[in-house]
Amino acid sequence: MAGTGKPRLRVSQNVCNACQSCQAYCSTAREGACAPSLSRVRVYLDPFGARHRITICRQCKNAACAKACPEGAITLSADGTRWDLDEDRCTGCFECVEACPFGAVFRHPTKQRPIRCDTCNGKPLCAEVCPMGALDWEDG
Amino acid sequence: MDSTGVYGWTGKILRVDLSSGDIRTEDTLRWGAEYFGGRGLAARIAWDELPPGVGAYDPDNPLMFMPGVLSGTPAPSSGRTSICAVSPQAYPLEWFTRASIGGHWGTELKYAGYDGLIVTGQASGPVYLWVEDDHAELRDASALWGQGIMATQKQLLSELGDDVRILTIGQAGENRSRIAIIATETESAAGQGGFGGVMGAKNLKAIAVRGHGAVHVADSRELLARCAVVRDGMMIKYARRRRTNRIEGKYKQKHYACTQHCAVPCVTFYSDVPGAVYKDRKYSGQFHCCAPGFVKSPQWDVGFEAGFEVAQLANDYGLNHWEFRFGIGPWLHACQQRGELEMLNGDRADLNDPHFWVKLIEKTALREDWGDCFAEGGQRAPALLGAGEDLINQFYPAWGQASHWDGHGSFGLPSYPYWLVTGLQWAMDTRDPLGGGHGHTTNFSSMIRTIDKDDKVTWDKVRQLSERVYGVPSAADPWSGYRGKAHAASLHCDMNPLKDALGICDNIFPLIVDLKAEDLQIRAHGIEGLDFEYYFTAPALGLDMSRDEFYRTGTRIFTLERLLQIRNWARDRTVDETVISYLAYPETDPNPVTGDRVCVDPDGFGQLMDEFYALRGWNRNTGWPTRKCLEQLGMGSMADDMEQLGKLGEEV
Prior knowledge:
Structural class of chain B: alpha+beta
Largest sheet of chain A: 2 strands, antiparallel
CATH architecture of the largest domain in chain B: 4-Layer Sandwich
Radius of gyration of chain A: 15 Å
Number of domains of chain A: 1
Number of strands of chain B: 22
Strand content of chain B: 5-15%
CATH class of the largest domain in chain B: Alpha Beta
Shape of chain A: globular
Number of domains of chain B: 3
Number of helices of chain A: 4
Strand order of the largest sheet of chain B: 2-1-6-3-4-5
Largest sheet of chain B: 6 strands, mixed
CATH superfamily of the largest domain in chain B: Aldehyde ferredoxin oxidoreductase, N-terminal domain
CATH architecture of chain A: 2-Layer Sandwich
CATH class of chain A: Alpha Beta
Shape of chain B: globular
Oligomer: heterodimer
Largest interface: A-B, 34 and 49 residues
Structural class of chain A: alpha+beta
Radius of gyration of chain B: 23 Å
Helix content of chain A: 10-25%
């Protein structure tokens, strides 16, 4: 979708249909196994009201996770569109998880490192597979 | 990559004995992988563990909850779960059969680390099962007993966290109704079979699950690429469902995927619909499949709000929608047409009055007064009420379940000769076969209404496609009478368990017909729709088998279920013929080809049965599989067992 600003992931909470394809594709593509707990995007289901809630990193301009990281392992990409995690520098202290005000950085269930969205380097798979347009990549 | 090298499976089955409180796990693959998961795995276990003589409400009845082997993977529309046990709804004998449920419970069970859950025994008082990864425990459910399905889920969500997935029963299940459902969320249900009553008899109110684990796949990159191809194939057929999920209409309607990874959901969610009977209430929930039939049918019209309220109340009390929409409701109407059952012990049974419908649901669920008769299910109710016994067969083809895509009774589609295919599926199954046996109906049987009768070129293409799919040109030809119909029925009898074993949506698969394609076949990126299931299963499971071998898994499961029927319930050809008396009524609507209403020709149908048995390698006189048939499917040891029992089919 054409826009005027920098590329970004647009989230339309109301139109999510609970299919959870985003979680399945994200975890399978990025972690090699399918699980909500391995996904960078999370869908919190609302079975009785159908107001499901999607949580995914907003790539904040002033990223609390990056500020909180004592190792400086979360850095802005060269094009300024996303925050990348340098896994070699990450010590797994999870300060980033605690710092994110949107609850969009997660603990890896079995490894000592966080799980956070890096927009698949500007080609987010979750937006590609979302059948309802709840996740949509705006090219900027 | 998973260190065990096992893909799709989690490797463990959870077993709970409610009588002793014993909870343990076992290795899934001790049962082999030849039957995949879901319904196939359940049948395999039942073969070893379900002896003859076990009744539906006996503590020994193993209630099995089996997600498909693909459930929890990114495979399209793959989050479904089979629930299998001896069924109280089955008629005239309670026998082993299955139901399928969507929602998000089955995948959660996989993420908790289990390929299935088997519950046996009977708790001494109400309990619920709480499973979180390796932890499983039985907890007191006294406070939940007597609660509806929505209240039970909400209570458990508030106690355990809103990311927990719950299966539960309502009052109907507690009261051992033969038409009680097991449900999750607002409308996903194991509807047919009465398995809610089995849970109730076990004093098991609910099963709550949370899982933090993963389902491993063999080749994630290839799987995702292939899923994308198949999703494109799904869009060819269901393009109208692919649209931005606008929230539209008076009740903020929106699409709702009843299962994981469904890109083309058929469910609509409605919010805050005011009650027509309980005017102080508002209802929100899913509304699909036969639920809109509560609003309006050929026999009644109560208006949207009332119909929605009745559907939601049935969901909450835990009753089977299908029974009321296609069985009990139309049968009551037929009785009233000749002046019977206009009153039920002082209550006016007016099908156009929502107050009666609410009473019907409530009294049935609570077994109050005349509702106690309906709690036994539509096929058993007339004898208990002492009325309309001669009419019930018009609405119940067989096995205690009401009309479904058989052109008769309360289901006017498809027209002759297509209902010969579904009629034959009914004859050979243990329940309504269209719970998993769509395929002919979703691909071929509507053609007579969409292709011009004089369009010879297109009809020739249909015959060519039929030959490609079924091996005979006549299976999808509306002018072909009984020819080729056994071939079509046989294929869909096998596709049905294959889909249930994988955990994929019956309504979507198989994807065969694209009326816009030159040869009428669905293709996506050069892959034929006929191959889709194999195409995405292979990289998910790391299959080491050919396409034909893969599809033969469905044949193996269907055949094993047949053996179980023969061994435990004396199934034979005469039992299969049950359906003929139902098909002998004129089809419901005038036939678009002949102009009149066609009845089955019993001799012609008998020959179809002969053909069906011959295609499968079953003896035509007994309907029993032969040794050759079983050995070709790798079921030689079962052939030995059947021979010992004197129930092996003689070679044709």
